[in-house]
Specification:
- The protein is of the alpha/beta class.
- It has helices at 16-26, 29-34, 47-55, 65-68, 80-93, 108-117, 154-157, 160-171, 181-205, 215-220, 228-237, 239-261, 265-286; strands at 8-12, 37-41, 60-61, 73-76, 99-102, 121-126, 147-151, 175-178.
- It has two domains: 8-179, 3-Layer(aba) Sandwich (Rossmann fold); 184-286, 6-phosphogluconate dehydrogenase C-terminal fold.
- Helix content is 54%, strand content 12%.
- An eight-stranded mixed sheet has the order 3-2-1-4-5-6-7-8, sandwiched between helices.
- β2, α3 and β3 (60-61) form a beta-alpha-beta unit.
- The longest helix has 25 residues, at 181-205.
- The relative contact order is 0.11.
- The model has no long low-confidence stretch (mean pLDDT 93).
- Residues 239-266 form a coiled coil.
């Protein structure tokens, strides 16, 4: 076990992911052993929200930025462009070196800004979530068995506090994968951002026939319930990768339409059989 060096964690943004991180870590045996103090802030919270989030495990709701940022680990859990702007505030406010992380769905833009500011930073992306937003939808097991991507170089990964962070993530039963920020953004454009936009496009395309749809349509368009307030920053900070994936997928749809129109049954069957195999692999890996 690495030296326990994270004694205080501040979480900025206490919505679905931020509150779920809080709840998961709060019940972690390792966090309990280290007696970690959890502080946090969310600009949308009123007194009732503050009372509720304390019931979920927050030790202190801090409105004073100097006190908020006085922590061994700061986790930014606001939308990504807000997180990027908060880096400047942290740089101006924090007196001692502090490890900063985030749970944004894109990594390259925020990593570049942290490097420009000379902030000790490690990108973190828990591959988990819901269509619902807010701390009321949070859960202490949202990340159980899920992958958490860490974006950092070897020097950062060798730091004792980063080692302690990885131990904390493993203690809440996360699988850790390490990759570069640019690689991360390209991958999530394919397996996360593309499905969101396809779901949005599909339900809009079928708007006049939704009342005649069945459970299959509902399953396929589940992501259409996602909030634009979350996705506007994701799209803005990963637009080139997302646009490339949409272009590529549109060509796939054109080829499928052409095969169906020309009655190339074997080609369509091959797609089904390949998809069946890939889906079996996917469900087995996630079980």
């Amino acid at each position: 076990m690495q030296t326990a060096c994270i004694n205080t964690i501040s979480i900025i943004g206490l919505g679905l992911i931020g509150a779920s991180v809080l709840r998961a870590l709060k019940k972690s045996p390792l966090a309990l052993k280290q007696r970690i103090l959890f502080k946090g802030y969310d600009p949308s919270f009123d007194d009732r929200d503050i009372d509720h989030i304390k019931e979920l495990g927050l030790d202190r709701f801090e409105t004073d930025k100097k006190s908020l940022y006085a922590a061994d680990l700061i986790i930014l859990a606001a939308p990504v462009e807000t997180n990027i702007s908060l880096l400047d505030e942290i740089k101006r406010t924090v007196e001692n070196p502090t490890l900063v992380s985030d749970v944004s769905s894109t990594k390259a833009a925020i990593a570049r800004r942290a490097e420009e500011l000379g902030i000790d930073f490690i990108g973190m992306h828990p591959i988990a979530g819901k269509e619902q937003q807010g701390y009321h939808a949070s859960h202490d097991e949202l990340f159980t068995g899920k992958t958490v991507v860490l974006c950092a170089d070897e020097e950062t990964l060798s730091r004792p506090d980063v080692g302690n962070l990885q131990e904390l993530l493993r203690s809440i039963k996360c699988r850790i994968v390490v990759m570069a920020p640019e690689e991360h953004d390209k991958i999530v454009a394919t397996v996360s951002h593309l499905p969101q936009l396809l779901s949005t496009a599909l339900i809009n395309h079928c708007e006049h026939d939704i009342d005649k749809s069945g459970p299959g349509f509902s399953t396929l368009t589940r992501l259409a319930g996602s909030s634009w307030d979350i996705w506007k920053d994701i799209i803005a900070t990963n637009r080139e990768n997302i646009a490339s994936e949409l272009d590529s997928f549109s060509r796939e749809l054109e080829q499928l339409a052409d095969d169906i129109r020309a009655n190339r049954t074997n080609k369509v069957r091959e797609r089904f059989e390949k998809a069946n195999t890939l889906y079996d692999n996917l469900t087995n890996n996630n079980s």
